[in-house]
Amino acid sequence: MALTPGGQGRYTAGSPLPVFVSVQITVMPESFSDYPSRSPHAPEGKRLRVTELFFSLQGEGNTTGWPTVFVRLTGCPLRCTYCDTSYAFQGGEWWDLDAILTAVAAHEAHYVTVTGGEPLAQKACQDLLTALCDAGYTVSIETSGVLDICGLDPRVVRVMDLKTPASGEVEKNLWSNLDCLRAQDQVKFVLGDRADYDWAVVQVKTHQLAERCEVLFSPAQGTLAPATLADWILADRLPVRFQLQLHKILWGDTPGR
Ligand code: SF4
To answer: What is the pTM of this model?
Structure first.
């Protein structure tokens, strides 16, 4: 429930008190199936297959901890060894853009993250990103780095993986994407072992990644001990940001959190 002057979401200290105060009650969907019409029969190219849409805390990157709406699109052409979202490989439901925007707006958030699967595997993803930017959100995309990011709406923050040898998908990296990273973007390595770490250090230095954008190093869950990775980073004085997935610390592997 939000108590709002003139229908706005918050009050600024020092502003004159309003004569009338309206009370807005927002009913949040409790599950994915509670959302209203999703327009599944919209034409090809105007709809997206969605696995889940939910409101949570951002668990990774430089907006960690901010309340964020996540739109998880269905499908991925990769099969990383450590994948924790294989439930997004198939299934989902068709939504048109308006239905997604309506569902996102219900959560009254500032940040929206489009993720997957591999969200760019669906052509209409680019239209969704632009529509979310047009609606005034701060928008990021989480992408595997194997599909072209250079043509994305420039307002979108790109959080891009570089797949390591232990992922089993290293040969699929689209290296030309590195030329399209900007200061506000982030490149992420999920590391499975010491060989992965050494490989990632070489990539950071060879491609001067830390000068292009923020570089994130994460341990693959259950494979590399977080403290071990932290010690390696400190010993090497690496200009990278160590991160753990906040949502997993809070809620484990629960989908939709
Ligand atoms: S790119 Fe992401 S969603 Fe696809 S298999 Fe790898 S970890 Fe899973």
So the answer is: 0.85
